[in-house]
Design a protein that fits this description.
The protein has about 250 residues and is α/β, with parallel strands linked by helices. Helix content is about 45%, strand content about 15%. It contains 8 helices and 7 strands, in the order βαβαβαβαβαβαααβ. The chain has a 7-stranded parallel β-sheet, with helices on both faces. The chain starts with 6 loop residues before the first strand and ends in a 6-residue tail after the last strand. The chain binds NADPH dihydro-nicotinamide-adenine-dinucleotide phosphate.
């Protein structure tokens, strides 16, 4: 019997944490749809690795900060599901795409606030709402939050506030979507060495060392530390995990 493969859609899958999530989720036997904002080549490289390893993958362009583009993305997704996956729906949506901006609270401009809100909260809220009709029962939503929703680092007040809001949103999604068999969880990474925020944690020795001192496992996080947790949430083994915030930080600021 041909068992229908599960499909996970991961936003921001071209680089960093989203790339690792895509690779690890594919390694669990799911097919992947990943999105990117501008780095098509990077996204296609991730697609190629997944295909080489035997799963199907497609990369689609999407600006998750622009709600007005979601309707046409929905149409594209529908077409791709039919033509490339012989499917009508996805099983998991991972809201990962994001940016980091460091500005002290006293100096945070409305523009910065709006940029962070559009991508980290409004985009996550309305993309999930738009794609809800395409989400299979017994699937789930994984929202990527941040350790910065629990602890603080100067300069991240707007960012941390948006991630806190996403954790709240996750509980509401779990409450309202449970009746459809849809689980919603938040994964909150600690500081990870990626391009995020201009690569500050990776490239600035002082910051890197400060972060290391704050982590009980005594090293700074790598993208490879995160994807497997998201992949696990997209499996049957996680079928009873719902409405949770799972921090993946090596024990940062405990
Ligand atoms: P990266 O900068 O390495 O990657 C960002 C990804 O998001 C890329 O795929 C990028 O696409 C995509 N992206 C950026 N802006 C948009 C947009 N407007 N629309 C659609 N896609 C977009 O970041 P990370 O991998 O480090 O971060 C991923 C998530 O993890 C974010 O939500 C972040 O807040 C969160 N996080 C990160 C931590 C860290 O220390 N790195 C810690 C805690 C949470 P493209 O390649 O095309 O530009």
């Amino acid at each position: 019997m041909d068992i229908q493969r599960k499909i996970a859609l991961i936003t921001g899958g071209s680089r960093g944490l989203g790339k690792d999530m895509a690779l690890k989720t594919a390694a669990k036997g799911l097919d992947i749809i990943l999105t990117y904002r501008s780095k098509k080549e990077e996204a296609e490289k991730v697609v190629a690795i997944i295909k080489e390893n035997g799963q199907h993958a497609v990369a689609l362009q999407l600006n998750t900060a622009k709600v007005s583009g979601f309707k046409s993305f929905k149409t594209t997704l529908q077409e791709i599901l039919e033509s490339e996956y012989n499917a009508e729906k996805i099983d998991f949506l991972v809201n990962n795409a994001g940016i980091g901006i460091n500005e002290p609270f006293a100096e945070t401009s409305e523009e910065t606030f709006d940029r962070l809100m559009n991508i980290h909260l409004k985009g996550v809220f309305f993309l999930t709402q738009t794609l809800l009709p395409f989400l299979n029962e017994n699937g789930g939503i994984v929202n990527i939050s941040s350790g910065l929703a629990r602890f603080t680092m100067p300069g991240y007040s707007a960012y941390g506030a948006m991630k806190g809001a996403v954790e709240s949103l996750t509980r509401y999604q779990a409450k309202e979507l449970g009746k459809f068999g849809i689980r919603a969880n938040a994964v909150a990474p600690g500081a990870i060495e990626t391009d995020f925020g201009g690569g500050l944690v990776r490239d600035n020795d002082k910051v890197n060392n400060q972060v290391k001192q704050a982590i009980s496992l005594n090293r700074v996080g790598q993208a490879d530390d995160i994807g497997g947790v998201v992949a696990f949430l997209c499996t049957e083994d996680a079928k009873w995990i719902n409405a949770q915030r799972i921090e993946v930080s090596g024990g940062q600021n405990i």
